[in-house]
Amino acid sequence: MTGVALLPPGVRKEIRALWPVWAACAAAIVAGGFLDGINTVTAAVFAYALGSVALGAQSIGHEYTNRTLTQLLSLPADRRRLYLVKLGVLIPMLLSLGALAFVLLFNPRTLDHGPAATFPLVSVMCALFLAPWLTMICRGPLAGIVFALVIPGMIFVAGDVAGFSAYGLGPEAARLKFAVFWWGMTGSCAVAAVLSWRMFMRLEAMEGRDPHVRLPRWLRDPAAATDVELARHPVWLLVKKELRLQHLTFVVSGIYLLEWATLWVLRLMAPGLEGTPFAVATAFHSGAAALLAGSLASAEERHFGTLEPQLLLPMATWKQWTVKAGTTFGVVLLLAVALPALLGRFSPSGDGLRVNGWFAAAMILLMAASLYVSSLCASGLRALLASVAVMVSVVIAGSALYSVIGSNVYRTILSILSASQTDVPRSWAEPLAIALAAGFLALVLRFALVNHRSSERRVGRVGWQAARMVAWLIVAFVILVACLAGDYRLASVRTV
After folding, report:
1. Were both Cys, which of 143, 440, 477, 484 would link to 138 (CB 3.0–4.6 Å)?
2. How far is CA 251 from CA 56, 153, 155, 192, in A?
3. pLDDT for 6
4. According to the model, what pLDDT value does residue 210 have?
5. Helices (H), ranges, 74-140
6. Digit-coded pLDDT (tens) for 26-70
């Protein structure tokens, strides 16, 4: 008898469901703890926060994702035992991640102030109490993750409001703010723990949404009786379908708008109020909106089982993909770029964060990367987690490579280009960067289309696509460095 066979089947099932997320999060924490650099540590902290909450949501959510909730609830076993089994697997994983993060990421060497040391505890509380309850309410793990991450931020903003209302500005207001935060988190988690237990005891398996009760079309819109063909244009129907897939992205932007309105009112009343750094909220919102939009676009159709019927429609696949990609681009430009830029014209602004063309390009590339990952995944949650894992891996690996060989390679390329008298005008740098980014975007979207319309997930094909994208980035790097060769040559001559 093996060691695995000694565990009950229910425990083995929970471990298999949570193990990939735990392993990826632990790897990011270890990499961030042993590699130097603020970018590496920041990426590891972000991976830990998202990974721990994802574990809590997945403890219940994998039943929804894999459509096994009906089988679970129909087992001849006490529901209290089923829930305790889930907690018995979840708690050790969360505590091990929290201990690992506290030792490697939140030790006194990397902390500038005391309150950050409580970050692992907040993550564990959100993952253990809030995420499972919200997952059961929303009937999906992705919404559970989003709202479990949002609630602490909203409580923190409420602490700003309470502190300013009671004491204005000063140390007393700061102490009250953190007291409100901790009491609010403790109370929310206590309520969530009770309601989570109660909800699981009464949980029912319901597939899909409740049917809508509507009046006949001719009663709702008299003009539609003569304009049915225009109202049901196939392209417009595809756009509406894509927008329905993005409902969670709109929810995230709505929460961001509510936070901005609260801070705007507070800073109008107290111009010297520091409060929550709004640049952090803006960066988090834009990145989350871009990742969510790309992750939901392709994978959610596969999760709902509508992809195959969609491909059989009497419309070319490339046209359907154009509508999908165009709608996703529009959502990202509207929510992740235009909304922060519009709010930045009022007080408070982005607190130093400039929403310019380069920011928009970064959001578009982030969305395209998550859309490519989405074309390889079977659900929006897996696409989101995989996109975050890829992003964190790129940041950590890029920082590590640059610290080891990056500067030497950069100088070597400059020396070779300078010695060969290669002189590309520096004024070409920006147009070349735009052209190379556009080419990379087209390449990623082309590969995503190939993956979207095919059910094959061969490692060889994905590896070949990844190799071509990496090759494009290397060539782009060399071309852009060539624009600096002339300045490097002039600097060398001046030094001599």
Report:
1. 143
2. 21, 15, 18, 21
3. 74
4. 46
5. 79-104, 119-125, 131-138
6. 888 888 777 766 777 777 888 888 889 999 999 998 888 888 888
Pair 355, 267: CB distance under 8 Å? no
Q: What is the DSSP string of 46-64?
A: HHHHHHHHHHHHHHHHHHH
pTM: 0.79
The distance from CA 116 to its chain's CA centroid, rounded to whole angstroms, is 22
User: How far, in Å, CA of 163 to CA of 266, rounded?
Assistant: 11
Query: Helices 9-34 and 38-65 meet at what angle, rounded to 10?
Result: 170
Q: Answer yes or no: are the C-beta atoms of 295 and 374 closer than 8 Å.
A: yes
Contact present, 326 and 449 (Cβ < 8 Å): no
Contact 45, 141 (CB under 8 A): no
Query: Residue 209 and residue 143: Cα distance in Å, rounded?
Result: 15
Could you tell me what percentage of the chain is helix, strand and coil, using 3-state DSSP and rounding each to the nearest 5? Answer: 80, 0, 20
Quote the radius of gyration of the chain (alpha carbons, Å): 25
Q: Is 442 left (phi over 0), alpha (psi -120 to 50) or beta?
A: alpha
- Region for residue 380 given its phi and psi (left: phi exceeds 0; alpha: psi -120 to 50; beta: otherwise): alpha
Q: Scanning the structure block, which residue is given the tokens 């237990």?
A: 197
From CA 161, how far away is CA 259, in angstroms rounded?
11
Structure tokens at 300: 């959610």
Residues of the chain with confidence (pLDDT) below 50: 1, 109-114, 209-213, 215, 224-230, 349-350, 487-496
| SS3 (DSSP) at 405 | helix
Give 355's contacts (C-beta < 8 A, 6+ positions apart).
Answer: 282, 337, 340, 341, 344
